[in-house]
Design goal:
Elements lengths: L6 H15 L3 H9 L2 H11 L3 H15 L3 H9 L3 H9 L5 H17 L2 H10 L2 H7 L5 H21 L5 H8 L2 H7 L7 H11 L2
Helix pairs in contact: 1-4, 4-7, 6-7, 7-10, 8-10, 9-10, 9-12, 10-11
């Protein structure tokens, strides 16, 4: 897959990559062996076409939703910093930021405690907190679930005091979660998180 100038061709290629990422590990490994992560990261770092960036984030999100092994490969390929940048960059369409946040939230939801620690150290709590009030439920719900996984991991890793609650508090995460209590889709989850972890 070369980075081509024709956005429509790149979109079709990315859709195919995303479909392969839904397949078996051996197919995914063939793409990895042929440098797919390098090329995806290059699009994230240098792309300007919103549609292409969204498709790239979506393909990565498919992989981070799979399992810890695939999440580790994404981390090892240094893609997380690019997703973090896109999830917060005001110079990109809001949909690009949402899709990047979804890829991060999937990694937090499916990752091991050590992978979650890596994500937190990289700075993923801020974007997840920023996007839990997003009007697009395909973004807000995964971001809330990602924060829930981070809080659970913090509870296990820090037995005396969950340090992740402090970071979430710094980003007004609990204040934002509080606003979700009346939401018919996620109000109950928000209320349980506040009751268990809210400071």
């Amino acid at each position: 897959m070369q980075i081509l100038s024709d956005g429509k061709i790149v979109e079709h290629v990315l859709r195919t990559v995303g479909n392969i990422f839904k397949g078996v590990d051996s197919q995914i490994q063939i793409l990895i062996n042929n440098g797919v992560f390098f090329r995806l990261n290059a699009i994230l770092m240098h792309g300007s076409n919103s549609s292409v960036l969204r498709k790239t984030c979506s393909a990565i999100s498919t992989l981070t939703a799979r399992d810890r092994n695939q999440i580790q490969k994404i981390m090892d390929a240094h893609i997380i910093p690019s997703l973090l940048y896109l999830s917060q960059a005001d110079n990109y369409d809001v949909e690009v930021r949402w899709d990047a946040a979804c890829a991060l939230s999937n990694a937090a939801r499916r990752g091991s405690n050590e992978q979650i620690r890596f994500l937190v150290n990289q700075g993923c709590i801020g974007p997840l907190c920023d996007h839990i009030l997003c009007p697009d439920r395909k973004t807000s719900i995964p971001c809330l679930k990602g924060l829930k996984s981070i809080l659970k991991a913090g509870e296990i890793m820090y037995s005396t005091r969950n340090l992740y609650t402090l970071v979430i508090t710094d980003f007004d995460g609990f204040g934002k979660i509080e606003k979700l209590q009346s939401d018919p889709d996620i109000g109950e989850m928000a209320m349980k998180l506040l009751m268990k972890y809210g400071v």
